[in-house]
């Protein structure tokens, strides 16, 4: 019987919701490319309820305990004395989420001799040292596509909120003002702008599709080019490098995974090649940009705005400069964990566990590392190596 160690974010400060804002969430069974949404044999939760925080337990307890497995759920994940690090020693399966990542560094993997499966309840497994997982023969899997559309919607929201100066305008209303000139002196229309995505995978392509009706000029860069018919349908221009795309764009949205090739891709040199007054929207991973270069570019006006929901490390300490930099629309890492998305990633986590325990193959599209090599989606979208360096700084976070 296996010990499953599951790291989830904290419950709401006022406790689990007694009532929800809506009575249901749409039941999505298929994604745009034909892939089916998760298909576990059963679920023990009500879609639309809070599953991603500690008390929600991803709806897994009944299923795991009925099979004799042990489930430990905690939000205490950082530092050598954390529950996560103490429980690792005899754990076979770690479940973690990008929103509140339990960083599985090489040192931690070395302390977990029984660890066989690192499962991401979401998308993005950069919080695992993939090289160490490859070397140790640990399987890494994630619930591909479960929240890609959730993020694409968030990207569109953030683009509009930045370009139209929504957040400061809303603040004027709350302050009792009617300061139209203050609100509009940084407000523009999106129409006609050049918008480019770094990566046109599940999220990037969905962003392009959602932006097309705004009559913008679309651009993308990706290692693999979209089919010609899709390029034509979207009117999207492919660029061989992020640099050639960034130079012509008013808005760049980042939608690639974090791996050694993309770490700090948007550094000072790249940002300085962008048009003055461009915007960056990053819902992919904080480390794909250079933290301090973003702050300097906002302060100098080289960037007109920066928004996103991904930071490094996570949670970000109280003195992280992105909390206080000007012209930003940062949120904590929430775009992929709406209640709608939670129903899918909880079901996908259950599906992967059902396969694992029944010794049946996990869907190829869920695999990142398997059998000592990058596999499935991992072989397509990642490069081997490690992007967890510096994650120990997450221990500096203190609850607000
Ligand atoms: P996909 O695997 O569908 O797409 C990733 C795309 O990135 C692929 O098209 C891949 O190219 C491309 N890519 C990889 N490396 C590079 C590179 N060096 N330059 C250009 N393109 C590159 O994943 P999703 O679209 O679903 O998710 C993308 C990322 O978004 C995740 O890895 C995660 O980090 C982040 N994410 C964030 C969430 C949030 O809540 N904020 C939630 C979900 C995801 P190819 O395959 O052609 O080689």
From TrEMBL:
Residues 62-361 form the D-isomer specific 2-hydroxyacid dehydrogenase catalytic domain. Substrate binds at residues 123, 147. Signal peptide: none annotated. GO terms for biological process: formate catabolic process. Keywords: Cytoplasm, NAD, Oxidoreductase. Its main location: cytoplasm. The record marks 285, 333 as: Important for catalytic activity. Pfam families: 2-Hacid_dh, 2-Hacid_dh_C. Its EC number is 1.17.1.9. It is found in: Cytoplasm. Residues 390-400 have a biased composition (Basic and acidic residues). Residues 381-400 are annotated as: Disordered. Homodimer. PANTHER family: FORMATE DEHYDROGENASE 1. Catalyzes the NAD(+)-dependent oxidation of formate to carbon dioxide. Formate oxidation is the final step in the methanol oxidation pathway in methylotrophic microorganisms. Has a role in the detoxification of exogenous formate in non-methylotrophic organisms. This is Formate dehydrogenase. The lineage of its organism: Bacteria, Pseudomonadati, Pseudomonadota, Betaproteobacteria, Burkholderiales.
